[in-house]
Design brief:
Structural class: alpha+beta
Oligomer: single chain
Number of strands: 5
Strand content: 5-15%
Largest sheet: 3 strands, antiparallel
Distance between the termini: 59 Å
Radius of gyration: 20 Å
Number of helices: 7
Helix content: 25-40%
Order of helices and strands: HHHHEEEEEHHH
């Protein structure tokens, strides 16, 4: 009984501390201001961990890390996926070692190239980028297919437009990487 009461007291103190005005002030201090869109976008891309899915990896003694020469360039067009038992994807999701390809009941999806190269978002308008994230539209085009899992666009859609514009500004400022990402493979194809 004493342990239970102690646990509730600790939980209560932690909740109060995490919701304190000082904690909220510190959290806001870390986020670059809207005055510097590129810096704010860089911060948001790092915080949302876009590299986890959109960057090919290299193996290090710490495990796989984003390849600095291919940051945010999407699934490497030179990588072929191995064969797999299609029955498995009825109840499991398969990822490649890079985390840039996912296979599940929706088919096979490949992380897009987010660099400003023509093979990435080079020709995208800011409006297209926002539409892709806010409404889950492939390439931000009105009559296109939906963005496929594992892209968590539903959660990201709640970001304010100012943050999406900052992310777009940052992505347009990074090194362009030529990489034509394969088209998604939908079920039955």
């Amino acid at each position: 009984m004493k342990k239970t009461i102690f646990a509730f007291v600790v939980l209560g103190i932690m909740t109060i501390a995490c919701n304190s005005p000082k904690q909220k002030e510190l959290a806001k201090a870390d986020l670059p201001s809207l005055d510097d869109q590129v810096k704010r976008g860089e911060f948001l891309v790092a915080t949302l961990d876009c590299n986890a899915c959109h960057s090919p990896k290299i193996m290090t003694n710490r495990g796989p890390v984003p390849d600095p020469d291919k940051l945010l360039s999407g699934h490497d067009s030179n990588e072929t996926l191995p064969s797999y038992d299609a029955k498995t994807t009825e109840t499991f999701v398969l990822f490649n070692m890079n985390g840039t390809a996912a296979i599940g009941p929706w088919g096979t999806s490949f992380a897009g190239n987010l660099t400003p190269d023509a093979t990435g978002i080079g020709f995208w308008s800011e409006e297209q980028f926002i539409k892709a994230i806010k409404f889950g539209k492939y390439k931000g085009l009105e009559n296109s297919r939906p963005l496929l899992p594992p892209m968590p666009w539903e959660g990201y859609s709640k970001l304010p437009d100012e943050d999406l514009k900052a992310i777009y500004a940052y992505l347009k400022s990074i090194k362009p990487v030529k990489n034509i990402v394969p088209q998604a493979i939908l079920p039955g194809i």
